Amino acid sequence: MTLSIWFSLFLISALGAMSPGPSLAVVAKHSLASGRIHGMITSWSHSLGVGIHALLGILGLAVVLKQSPTLFTAISYAGAGYLAYLGVNALRSKGGIAAKLKAGESTTMVEAARDGLMISLLNPKLALYFIALFSQFVALSAELSSRVIIVATPIIVDGLWYTLIAIILSRPKVLEKLRAKAHWIDRVSGVVLILLAMRVVYMA
């Protein structure tokens, strides 16, 4: 794999990671409620889920997912259900940002890792994304080293991007500004998550 080809892969992976969506909401939730370490744990567990999708894509299993409407629909509904669950909890401030900031509570590291992993694993659109992404690169080389790079690049890019988000949101000055608006952050993020869940169901 040449440097120019890898840079193309890196750029596409970065654009995918920076696209706003439920992943950003989940990383922000744990970063604001529990601090930098929890946000970073969420970030890298999310990237692990991205890596699993990438591995499935490179092995061609994502093609099977695309060709199986029943399986794809089941995973879509599972993902929508999890998004709706997060959204309802945020609207009720049950386990949301506002509740934890006011009560001084903190999510466990296991909960942070679980949310990061699940929000990426239960997103079938990621599988289709990697089909489109890898179709441009897999045919370029059959070498194992090249395929390792193809899978590792989106994992590292995703983890580093959301780690940056966690660091920014966990800065004291940023937290003080957001603390006063924590209630509205819960409301807005809850509505966004539920709308995303509805969109997933509609598109399934």
TrEMBL record:
<protein>
    <submittedName>
        <fullName>Lysine transporter LysE</fullName>
    </submittedName>
</protein>
<keyword id="KW-1133">Transmembrane helix</keyword>
<dbReference type="Pfam" id="PF01810">
    <property type="entry name" value="LysE"/>
</dbReference>
<dbReference type="GO" id="GO:0005886">
    <property type="term" value="C:plasma membrane"/>
</dbReference>
<keyword id="KW-0472">Membrane</keyword>
<dbReference type="InterPro" id="IPR001123">
    <property type="entry name" value="LeuE-type"/>
</dbReference>
<dbReference type="GO" id="GO:0015171">
    <property type="term" value="F:amino acid transmembrane transporter activity"/>
</dbReference>
<feature type="transmembrane region" description="Helical">
    <location>
        <begin position="148"/>
        <end position="170"/>
    </location>
</feature>
<feature type="transmembrane region" description="Helical">
    <location>
        <begin position="126"/>
        <end position="142"/>
    </location>
</feature>
<feature type="transmembrane region" description="Helical">
    <location>
        <begin position="182"/>
        <end position="202"/>
    </location>
</feature>
<keyword id="KW-0812">Transmembrane</keyword>
<keyword id="KW-1003">Cell membrane</keyword>
<feature type="transmembrane region" description="Helical">
    <location>
        <begin position="41"/>
        <end position="65"/>
    </location>
</feature>
